[in-house]
Amino acid sequence: MWEERLKIYDELVAKCSNFERKGKSMPYTSANGHMFSLLNKNGELGIRFSKPVQEKYFEELSTTYFKSHGATMQGYILIPEQMLNDLDTLAQLLNESYDYVMSLDPK
Predict the structure, then answer these.
(1) What is the CATH number of the domain that holds 33?
(2) DSSP run (H or E) holding 30
(3) Taking 90 as the threshold, does the pLDDT of residue 25 lie above it?
(4) Local structure of 89: helix, strand or coil
(5) Cα(80)–Cα(101) distance, rounded to whole angstroms?
(6) What digits encode the pLDDT tens for the residues 5-21?
(7) Which of 7, 8, 24, 2 is nearest to 90 (CA)?
(8) Is 0.85 surpassed by the pTM of this model?
(9) How far apart are CA 47 and CA 80, in angstroms?
């Protein structure tokens, strides 16, 4: 299952021209010194947003915080499994997250 999710994640990131996937054992994206998406060892996808946008997506997508290695990743929402087949919508979310981290002070 993880390999299948990795393929989906790679396809998703390939749809976005402003950044590339990083990481071998823990695939992620980062920009401006900030990580903004992550595929955990369970094959779950987390995407980072500002607090108000997180709250909006928690409600709209009926989801919760993303967890990785047993830790709740503050700022990240768990992308619902049924959305993993909709790469166009996911690409919009990922680009929105990229724009968010680019608005933060560089690390």
Answers:
(1) 3.30.1460.30
(2) strand 28-31
(3) no
(4) helix
(5) 22
(6) 999 999 999 999 999 99
(7) 8
(8) yes
(9) 11
Residues 65 and 77: beta-carbon distance below 8 Å: yes
| 64, 70, 71, 72 alpha-carbon torsion, rounded to 10° | 0
Number of helices (H), then strands (E), belonging to the chain: the values are: 3, 5
Range of the domain at 91: 2-103
Q: How many domains does the chain have?
A: 1
92 pLDDT above the threshold of 90: yes
Contact 58, 77 (CB under 8 A): yes
**Per-residue pLDDT tens digits for 41-89:** 999 999 999 999 999 999 999 999 999 999 999 999 999 999 999 999 9
Q: In whole angstroms, what separates CA 60 from the centre of its chain?
A: 16
